[in-house]
Design brief:
heterodimer, A: four-stranded antiparallel β-sheet, globular, B: Immunoglobulin-like, six-stranded mixed β-sheet, five-stranded antiparallel β-sheet
């Protein structure tokens, strides 16, 4: 596709349920990021995939959060047993491998846990 | 902790005035980038400045980088109401596999 695509764009879920968020990066982009952004706040790094290297999971806030990426394509972010504090916009971005490259962002998934 | 920290956190100016936002970071970097975000959704890349560059221009945007002070500034000249948005700096430090780390952002409001 022409840009980074995220789905769903909005998700309302009940506390305790699991949710899965999807990101389709730009074709050929080897780097993929997930960020979380709470209302009025900055971007909180969650996880970073780069090619075949082991992902950097250092930003995942708890073991309820996990993410996978199939090769250099689709990524899914899974949140188990959702809590109200998980409510936020989840942003995905992709970029070409290497230095001095810009990141392209999707429009995000707005997650609301009720 | 955040690699990039923007200053100020919020800025309100009149249309036609210049807006200056600053970013400080902690480690050595390959490059520093500025992004814009409207309405809390996807970010849009504005400009990238490499570690060996000191100043860069793009239209009404001017970015400076001082690696000795580990700081950068974004200047928007002759601001317009449409420039109202949040602006974020991001650093690529190379040591983390070219991962981008973002600061907390500056919320700019340009009043018509």
């Amino acid at each position: 596709g022409a840009g980074v695509s995220q789905s769903p764009s909005n998700k309302v879920t009940e506390k305790g349920k699991d949710v899965e968020l999807r990101c389709d990066p730009i074709s050929g982009h080897t780097a993929l990021y997930w960020y979380r952004q709470r209302l009025g706040q900055g971007l909180e790094f969650l996880i970073y995939f780069q090619g075949n290297s082991a992902p950097d999971k250092s930003g995942l806030p708890s073991d309820r959060f996990s993410a996978e990426r199939t090769g250099e394509s689709v990524s899914t972010l899974t949140i188990q047993r959702t809590q109200q504090e998980d409510s936020a916009v989840y942003l995905c971005a992709s970029s070409l491998r290497g230095r001095n490259t810009e990141a392209f962002f999707g429009q995000g998934t707005r997650l609301t846990v009720v | 902790s955040q690699q990039g920290e923007e200053d100020p956190q919020a800025l309100s100016i009149q249309e036609g005035e210049n807006a200056t936002m600053n970013c400080s970071y902690k480690t050595s970097i390959n490059n520093l980038q500025w992004y814009r975000q409207n309405s809390g959704r996807g970010l849009v890349h504005l400009i990238l400045i490499r570690s060996n560059e000191r100043e860069k221009h793009s239209g009404r945007l001017r970015v400076t980088l001082d690696t000795s002070k580990k700081s950068s500034s974004l200047l928007i000249t002759a601001s317009r109401a449409a420039d109202t948005a949040s602006y974020f700096c991001a650093t690529d430090d190379g040591n983390a596999g070219n991962m981008l780390t973002f600061g907390g952002g500056t919320r700019l409001m340009v009043k018509p």
